[in-house]
Every structure is written in structure tokens, then in C-alpha cells.
Design brief:
It contains 27 helices and no strands. The protein is mainly alpha-helical and 423 residues long.
């Protein structure tokens, strides 16, 4: 007797399982007859009949052997079955797979993961299973649609989300759900996946996450679908090494877009002179507007503003001179490596003395003084044209990205290149 040696509770569960299997066997008697008519030449009918017999018997060992055999029958020619035949495979395999051990479920999942027309209910069942079973299905199976993937993200574990993040293609709706619900590992895996696609608001959220998750910064800056305005924003909070990598992409922007952005940023500063809500800021905007109209916004004025510590007027005047908006100008001035400031001043054609006046007014401690001295030594070694190319990032801070183009160098690389050319 199959129940010998079981506890009363165990015998009760075994009886229930036997009854379920017996019901299953009876339910598919008619299907088996239909399937015999349609598929006698394949040899699948006899195996399906055996499967039903095993379901009636409830033997775990026999069920496992026959499940492997039925799966192999299907995998031998998955494209030749009709929709009705596929339905038979799907229903019976799904039911039997529920009660086999995990190692066999892993084996079945691996076999079906690369089969586009695998039985859909069985694939969904395996995708919701433990991660060791679900992983190959989640990473590779195209039988799962977007709704399936989103349901799994909402119902299963971070490990399931991470597996979905590795798929060859991750559509924008799925990426959005992963960014909304995923942990650090999920976000990094998704950012590293060049097959993942993102809506604009999802990419913006990823960039914001990268402020608190440094591991996100490298994979994001390596994505060529990252819009130029977001890449520019990242420049101001990443490491110096990553800044140099970002600057290598400074020629990825359309010159027409750059010109439009320059004028747009300057117009924004002048418009703020009229619309400023705070009186001190409004006065600063009016001050800048008057100097621009009089043609007096120059290096002399900037040095005077630095000396008199008129920080708001200096910020707006510097932004106009550099051709960037005030927010970007503030980020440039807050970069404690002073590399951003050196590039902006060189691109604007400032004299070395003007740059020195600005940079020494910004230093806060002895360590920053040493950085300022090193940057000052490099300042004149960087050609104006090279610095102007780098400035394209900041001049399109609020604009969209543009196609691939030749690479430019960071300030240290540019200086080294010029020095080498002179030797």
C-alpha cells in the first residue's frame, strides 16, 4: 500500500493528492482520445496515456521519468503541434510539474527557456516558482509577455526582479516597474543591460538614484541612450575619474542644438530679471540685464563682483558669460576639483588672472588651495577650442541628447596632448 508508514496527517494528504490525480486522469480521457486521432504518428499519444496512468497511480518516481519523456517529445518538434495539441501538453504538463521535486523543475525550466512557443501556462508557472527554477525562464523565455513580467515583479522576490533585469530585451514598461520596486542590485543590473529600454521619466529616476547609489554611476554614463541633459547633471556629482569619461563624449551633440541652447540659456537669465519673485534676486537680474545692454558684462566686472562678494550678481554674470543657465553655472562653481570652472573660463576666453581671482575666492581650505594651484598651472595649456568643445555639455543641460560623434578629452588629457605635440 502506498500509504504504509505515513502519519494520519500524511495519509490524509496522500489521499487528497490521489483523488486530485484520479480526477485529472478522468478529466483528460476525452482529450486523450482526440489527441490520439491528431497525433498518432508522433508517438506522443502513448506517452500521454502513460502520463494519465501515472497521474492516477501517484508514483513520484514514475511521474518524474514520464515528465522528462513527455517534455522531450514536445521539444523534439515544438513547431508542429496545433493549438489544440499545445493545450493538451500545457494542461497536463503544468499539472504534473506541480508535484515533482525542485531538481526536475529546474531541468524542465532549462529545456523550455529557449523555446519561443513553449506551453504558456507551464512557463508562467515555472516563472513564479523558486528562483532556482524560475531564473532561466525569467532571463531567456520570450513566451512571457510584458503583463506576465510585471505581475512577477509585483508578486515575487528581488531575485526574480534581478533575473528579469538580465533579459536580452527589457521593454520600457517593465523597466519602469523594476526601477519603481527594485533594490540596488536590481537597478545596477538593469542599468548594465544595454538591451533595457527606458522612458524619459524612468531614466530620470535612475539618475536620481545614482546620487545615493555610486554603483549606478558607471553603467549609466556608459549608456548611449542616456540623454545629454542627464549625463550633464551627473557630471557634477560623480568622481573626477568619471568626469573625464563623461567629457570624452562631449562631441555627441548637434552644433545647431548647442547654438540654440546658448541663446536659450542667455534669454532665460534676462527673462528672470523680470519674473524674479525675491527682491534681492530680482535686483541682481536687473543688474545683469543693464550690464548686458550697456556692453559692460566682461572680465573686469566679474573680478569686481568677486572682490565685493556680490555672489548673486556674480553667479548670473558668470552664467551669461559662459553661455549656460544659472543652475548649471552654480554646479560649475560648486565643483571642488575646479576642473569645471577651468574649462568654462578657458572656453569663455578669460585671462589667467581672471580665472585665478575666481578660483582663489572659492577655495575653502589648504587642500583646495593645492588643487587650485595645479589647475592654474594647466590653465593656459588647454586651447580655447578644446575647452569650447567640452562646454557643449553644460550648454545643453536642459536639452535632449544627440547622435554619436567623435570624442573630446578632459582638461588634463587635453593639456597632455598639447604638450606632447609641442615636443
Amino acid at each position: 500500500m502506498p500509504n504504509k508508514g505515513l502519519t494520519p496527517a500524511g495519509r490524509g494528504r496522500a489521499t487528497q493528492e490521489f483523488q486530485r490525480n484520479f480526477t485529472l486522469a478522468g478529466k483528460y480521457t476525452r482529450e486523450l482520445r482526440e489527441f490520439r486521432i491528431m497525433s498518432a504518428q508522433t508517438g506522443a499519444v502513448s506517452r500521454l496515456k502513460q502520463l494519465i496512468e501515472v497521474a492516477r497511480e501517484g508514483s513520484t518516481e514514475k511521474r518524474a521519468d514520464l515528465l522528462r519523456e513527455i517534455t522531450d517529445v514536445f521539444m523534439a518538434a515544438p513547431d508542429r503541434y496545433t493549438s489544440t495539441e499545445m493545450q493538451h501538453f500545457d494542461v497536463i504538463l503544468s499539472k504534473v510539474t506541480e508535484s515533482v521535486e525542485i531538481a526536475l523543475r529546474v531541468e524542465i525550466a532549462e529545456k523550455l527557456a529557449d523555446t519561443p512557443n513553449a506551453p504558456k501556462n507551464l512557463v508562467r508557472q515555472l516563472a513564479h516558482d523558486e528562483i532556482t527554477v524560475a531564473q532561466p525562464i525569467l532571463e531567456r523565455s520570450v513566451a512571457l509577455n510584458e503583463e506576465d513580467l510585471i505581475r512577477i515583479i509585483r508578486q515575487r522576490t528581488p531575485d526574480h526582479m534581478k533575473a528579469i533585469s538580465r533579459r536580452r530585451e527589457v521593454p520600457p514598461t517593465v523597466s519602469a516597474e523594476l526601477v519603481e520596486r527594485g533594490d540596488k542590485d536590481v537597478l545596477v543590473t538593469l542599468a548594465e543591460n544595454q538591451g533595457a529600454r527606458f522612458a524619459a521619466d524612468t531614466m530620470t529616476k535612475l539618475v536620481e538614484h545614482s546620487r545615493a547609489i555610486p554603483e549606478l554611476q558607471v553603467p549609466l554614463t556608459e549608456r548611449y541612450d542616456l540623454p545629454a541633459n542627464l549625463l550633464t547633471q551627473m557630471y557634477f556629482f560623480v568622481s573626477s575619474a568619471l568626469k573625464r569619461e563623461i567629457l570624452k563624449r562631449s562631441d555627441l551633440l548637434d552644433p545647431a542644438l548647442i547654438d540654440e541652447a546658448i541663446e536659450g540659456n542667455r534669454a532665460k537669465i534676462l527673462k528672470q530679471a523680470v519674473d524674479g519673485a525675491q527682491s534681492d534676486v530680482a535686483n541682481a537680474h536687473r543688474f545683469v540685464e543693464e550690464k548686458v545692454r550697456a556692453g559692460l558684462l566682461n572680465e573686469t566686472l566679474l573680478k569686481e563682483l568677486v572682490e565685493s562678494r556680490r555672489s548673486t550678481e556674480f553667479l548670473l554674470s558668470f552664467a551669461h558669460a559662459a553661455g549656460v543657465d544659472s543652475s548649471t553655472a552654480q554646479r560649475i562653481l560648486q565643483d571642488r576639483s575646479f576642473e569645471s570652472l577651468a574649462i568654462a573660463c578657458r572656453a569663455a576666453g578669460f585671462e589667467r588672472s581672471t580665472f585665478a581671482k575666481i578660483v582663489f575666492s572659492l577655495q575653502r581650505n589648504e587642500g583646495e588651495q593645492q588643487k587650485a594651484l595645479r589647475i592654474l598651472d594647466l590653465y593656459l595649456k588647454v586651447p580655447h577650442e578644446a575647452a569650447e568643445r567640452v562646454m557643449r555639455f553644460w550648454r545643453v543641460r536642459a536639452e535632449a541628447g544627440a547622435p554619436d560623434a567623435p570624442k573630446a578629452k578632459g582638461i588634463h588629457a587635453l593639456a597632455d596632448k598639447v604638450a606632447a605635440a609641442r615636443r
